[in-house]
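residues and backbone:
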Amino acid sequence: MAEVATPERRESPPSMVERMTLILDAFNGPSARLTLEDVARRTRLPRSTAHRILDQLVRQRWLAHHSFGYGLGQRALGLGGQDGGHGKIREAAAPLLHELQVTTGLVAHLAVLDGADIFYLDKLGGRLAACVPSRVGGRAPAHCTALGKAMLAWLEPEQVDALLGTAITRLTSRTIGDVRTLHQELHRVRQRRGLAFERGESFPGIACVAAAIRGAEGPVAGISLVGDIRAPLENVAPLVVTAAREASQVLFPGAASARRAGMGRARRAGQARSAPEATWSAETMNRLLAVDGRGDWM
């Protein structure tokens, strides 16, 4: 008597490595965007299991979680000898950094977010370069640098918490030492149209102003100028914003219109976040930049 063939029942892979591999394989390209339901359907993993592993992959930066779903993160995009787009970012920003440095005489930086840190892609110095303790390929905590705050400001609060955790360390007496205060500072950065400042938060005697290079999905890098803590950074802040905006336009030609459309929808819902203005008058700068009694940027 012939045996009746029964449908083979697919079981979940027993190991965590196999399950993670299944999920990463579900993303068939660097621009792929999947929801939790998409991932569960493609991998045939239980929804709760898929969600738990997705959270772990986001924390380890193999995946990124956006408002419209999940996409490949920095680590996944860096596989196979690629650099996660860093070369393109450096190429787009190089002439702008050079112009900033020559125009102001200050030290110009280009950096990206890498977990709780910023990762320096470029540094143009002049005579002040040796006085600024940064280097290409080096890192610094994102929460106490203008570059880091400029990029963190355009993430959702939950993303900031996931990147930094609940405990952040003080490097100097001026460093923000708790997450709640950091969120307040990031709110002020958004109120200043994306301008971030730090004075002595990372290293004593050094001040910095920065703005983020942004695509339709959020910040991808940041540009900054660094000088002595007494430097009048409000005078060069418009130049930094302009350079970041121009780099954004080179890297993401359609992102500005996409952001404007998104802002229009958010404004109608009462949730709009401000974006950099096209021009920066003296009156505008005075409104955006407020100094408290200690001389720290608020």
